[in-house]
Amino acid sequence: MKLADVLVKPILSEKANQLSEKSRVYSFKVARLANKLEIKKAVEEFYGVTVEDVRTAVAPAKSKSRFTKAGVISGRKPSYKKAFVTVGEGETIDLYANI
């Protein structure tokens, strides 16, 4: 798998911001087939930091439904994989630089 395909996007939420400020842990949405070694190489190459630890989790798919004028529309949100990356002491990743 190419390193450009490993990282899909960073997760920008209040919980993710608290993790990055307090314990240097950054959250990313990653490709479903990516393993921890590929995630580590991709983060080190794209952001220029040293990665100490990588933890992964797969968020399960969810069924969603909503009520509209045409009736009930039901569908499914896909599952995805997220990675929690711990960077070295004194290093940071500026996730808001490209916005």
* Count of the domains: 1
Strand content: 35-45%
Name of the CATH homologous superfamily: RRM (RNA recognition motif) domain
Our count of helices gives: 3
> Helical percent range?
25-40%
Task: Give the biggest sheet.
Answer: 4 strands, antiparallel
Give the CATH class: Alpha Beta
Distance from N terminus to C terminus (CA atoms, Å) equals 26 Å
- H/E series: HEHEHEEEE
Number of strands: 6
Architecture (CATH level 2) name? 2-Layer Sandwich
The low-pLDDT segments are none
What would your notes on this structure say?
This protein has 99 residues and is of the alpha+beta class. It has one domain: Alpha-Beta Plaits (2-Layer Sandwich), CATH 3.30.70. It is built from 3 helices and 6 strands, in the order αβαβαββββ. The strands form 2 sheets. Strands 1-2-6-3 form a 4-stranded antiparallel sheet. The radius of gyration is 16 Å and the shape is elongated. The model has no long low-confidence stretch (mean pLDDT 93).
Features of this protein?
single chain; 99 residues; alpha+beta; Alpha-Beta Plaits; four-stranded antiparallel sheet; two-stranded antiparallel ribbon; 6 strands; 26% helix
